[in-house]
Amino acid sequence: MQTSTKPTSQPQTSSALEGIKILDLTSVVFGPYASQILADYGAEVIKVESPEGDSTRNTGPRLEEGLSAIFLGVNRNKKSICLNLKDPQARDALLKLADTADVLMHSVRPQKMAALGLDHETLLARNPKLIYAGLHGFGNGGAYAGRPAYDDIIQGLSGIADIMTIQSGTPRYLPTIAADKTCGVAAAHAILAALFQRERTGRGQFIEIPMFETMTSYVLVEHLYGHHLPGHSDEIGYPRVLTEWRKPYRTSDGFVCMMPYTDKHWRTFFSQSGYPQHAADERFTSISMRTRHIAELYELAGQIVSKHPTAHWLDFCDTHEIPAAAANKLADLESDPHLKSVDFFTDIQNDAGHRYRFTRSPIRMEHSRVDPVMAPRLGEHTRAELIRAGLSVEIVDKMLSSGAAKQHAGSSDKN
What we know:
Elements lengths: L20 E5 L4 H11 L3 E6 L19 H6 L3 E6 L4 H12 L3 E4 L3 H6 L4 H7 L4 E6 L14 H7 L2 H9 L9 H24 L3 E6 H13 L15 H4 L6 E2 L4 E4 L4 H10 L3 H4 L7 H6 L1 H12 L4 H10 L4 E3 L10 H5 L3 E5 L5 E5 L22 H7 L4 H10 L2 E2 L9
Parallel strand pairs: 1-2, 1-4, 2-3, 4-5, 5-6
Antiparallel strand pairs: 3-12, 7-8, 8-9, 10-11
Helix pairs in contact: 1-8, 8-9
């Protein structure tokens, strides 16, 4: 097959989503993480906040008011405008912004958006090319539709607290905002898929990303297990990841993350560590048998690993091509040799002279690059963006005076 050498007629852009305008009415982590992913691909994300601002602006340590740690983690590369959507002028301003937007995403309960006249039917009638993304707790039409949802609630409902109970004996949530972030990734790819479909059809659409359904799907990838075979198996939950012995192995001086997985890995591990009798043990000779006896296998491996220091096992696994790594502490990540060598962390100094540290997008694209930009102050871009949307200077100034809109004190029309 010959490859065409004709130059492409497509315009060259500096980022994958350059020219895509997103109105982001989400808050906390679920929605902001999704919109940050899209901003990292080059979309112009305009964060629409209430006069009180996103609650995460006040979560964690801060150098200045409204720029707290959790907010910084999910709001880089965005602009911020501040509107009181209960005010008719602010609502009209948002509609004006939505008329030229590619995406509007929100995490407000659907009934509240309808009461404000900002439901998807209304906005799609005005702008048929709009992607209207509802990031909800529960799917419309379901028994739980319209209920509020936070990460802890969804972790509990989706079975995470239960699988923690099976493994440890105590119902617990994962010590990370797992539901918000997992569903945020799902929301980002759903929006990208809708944008791709619009390229083909010219039509926008309403899309819904419900947390409960999304997280349940995520958990059941491996844990539906025998229930994939209704009437033939009552087993639910993947034994390998549920055993209490699935954890970093304790060495004689610390911990190591070691993952013999294939038949060859386990034969090599046992025979080369001085325990050839276990390599021939029928309980451990195939993946199906190892899965059946996973607790015994991991307990036995743990006893063997405990006899030597971490460095020994890292060298052993490197020599015998068994996957292994050190168990990083959170405080180790900024000095991790790999993360340093790929410039994963970057420091930004803002106009107040404060230094902030951000991660970059983990994704690298040959023809798209977006460097991290400082997260915005509350209402930093209100005046400039409303004027850019076509509102007159007089109307915008009146909105700012009445409280329908709010502008950060140090901002200017140049933003």
